[in-house]
Amino acid sequence: MDQSAKLNDEAGQTLLDASHYRISYFDRGSDQLVITFNSMGQILEDDFGRHFFKSINISQINVACSHKDFFQSLSRESFLQAVSSVIAQHSDIVFYGTSLGGYAAIYFGSLLNARILAIAPRLPIHNYMEGLRSYHPDIELLHTDLNQVNSMQNSVLVVFDPEDEADSKFVSYFLTGRKNTRLITLNGAGHFILKQLNAINMLGPCIEGFIRSGDFGEDAIDVSAFTQPRRAKAEAALNHGDLAAARIEIEYLIKIRTGHDPFMTPWGLVKQYVELCDEIDIELPHILPTEHATLSRRMGQPSTPQKMMEAIIKHNYLTCQYQACLSLAELARVRYPESQIARTYVDKARIVIGKIGPN
What we know:
Rossmann fold, alpha/beta, UPF0227/Esterase_YqiA
């Protein structure tokens, strides 16, 4: 059995299971224990970072919550009662999470004399988010306000991008002046810091370094490799007509983008790139397509097979996969004769292929 299969076969012990949250324990025989919290978009069956912590042999408790629960159904008392016997078996405790999970790591970690790593922490249901895109005022805040939570002598490390408005507000509202809190700023990283670090092969070293020794290793992070600087490089290359350089940056941006973060959605650059290729009459090289899941989010999670097919047709055209666009549009036109999108993109793809040839 290969290593990845072993990781996937790992079974955990359920410490607490309710309709809106689940706490699981993975005993790997280490003195250290990391307590992780799922981020938004994950479900009860997900365990944040499980494969990574398995690969470095660190025992783990994972806390998951259901969609739009935001950990509000889990009280600090219930959490502590569920995990206290496991915590007693370990000498070094680290709470860790990102985004919503980062908030939860601070909130629940304040109960114990533990180290806390919160990356881009965010609580979308709190009124500090009012006016921002991710605000969820429809969900009731049941937790004690973080400003009113008395913490023990724990050490908190917060990693965030001060240029991200929502994350900067969280730090300003909840953490300014908080004792034993250290801030690491990664300008240009945006909210999805884990994905940015992973793209430059720094995620594992940073997390493991903090868990084992308290050293996040921020001095080794090249912030110029993050999305915003590379987006600027793409724009500069396009403005100077350097298509080869622009393509490298655009492919990178498409590859790592997540959700609807404007700094990670380079479709405007793709459009400018395509228009420039067309203007100077050269063949359009293939641009790396996105993952299917990301495509689904971008297209609003199409609810029917027809809508999904139409979304992929548009995606193929936008990423210069004209032959794939044409083939799928022709098939969609047969299956769904009423589809205006299929008819439109058959014509559009044929025009481009007639000009540049099949790609």
